[in-house]
Amino acid sequence: MFTGIIEEIGKIKGIKKGENSSVLTIEAKNVLDGTIIGDSISVNGVCLTVTDLLSTTFQVDVMAETLNRSNIGQLIPGQELNLERALTMEKRLGGHIVSGHIDGTGTIQNYREDDNTVWVTIATSPDLLRYVIEKGSIAIDGISLTVAGVDESSFEVAIIPHTAEKTILLKKEVGDTVNLEYDMIGKYVEKLLGFVNPSNPTKS
């Protein structure tokens, strides 16, 4: 589990592509402190397991499911990444509970400056937007953010200077893809409300 509070901006050092998978070598510093092989690190919001570790880099395996659901497959050497180590019981939950399991992707539609804030509009599909509510939480490339507005085709978030400095979101261009993870509470509620007991299929 993660908080969505990005600890460091890392960089892709190398990519080894398999037929339906990849091995990423990521350059980092802060997130390596205390990390051991087998630990989880959020990479652009994707929970990945550390498989190899050196003084300035770590490696992760990326399976086909992750490549299909996220923007990880679009990464190139030299590209920057949002990184966060897994949550510990001693750490303040400054964002919201983030699992690192991506629901889908969105596309940056527009940037709009407003004094010290940058408003970002992100378009995504209706089947994913049903989980987005105004003032609710969402993780964008692993960043815990609050939804400021939502319509039938997109939603909007506001980026303060600190978030702009500590993450890669505003370094992306209009049309770029971002990873999206919605608040898991809504998905659990939907599942429970739609559940039909096979032994008693009658609905109220």
From TrEMBL:
Keyword Aminoacyl-tRNA synthetase: no
Lumazine-binding domain mapped to chain residues: 1-96, 97-193
Keywords, alphabetical: Repeat, Riboflavin biosynthesis, Transferase
An individual GO BP term: riboflavin biosynthetic process
Zinc listed as a keyword: no
Pathway membership, UniProt: Cofactor biosynthesis; riboflavin biosynthesis; riboflavin from 2-hydroxy-3-oxobutyl phosphate and 5-amino-6-(D-ribitylamino)uracil: step 2/2
GO molecular function: riboflavin synthase activity
Catalyzed reactions: 2 6,7-dimethyl-8-(1-D-ribityl)lumazine + H(+) = 5-amino-6-(D-ribitylamino)uracil + riboflavin
EC annotation from Swiss-Prot or TrEMBL: 2.5.1.9
Coiled coil residues, start to end: none
Residues in Lumazine-binding repeats: 1-96, 97-193
NCBIfam families hit by this protein: PRK09289.1 (NF006767), PRK13020.1 (NF009566), ribE (TIGR00187)
Role noted for this protein: Catalyzes the dismutation of two molecules of 6,7-dimethyl-8-ribityllumazine, resulting in the formation of riboflavin and 5-amino-6-(D-ribitylamino)uracil.
Subunit structure: Homotrimer.
Protein name: Riboflavin synthase
Species this chain originates from: Fundicoccus ignavus
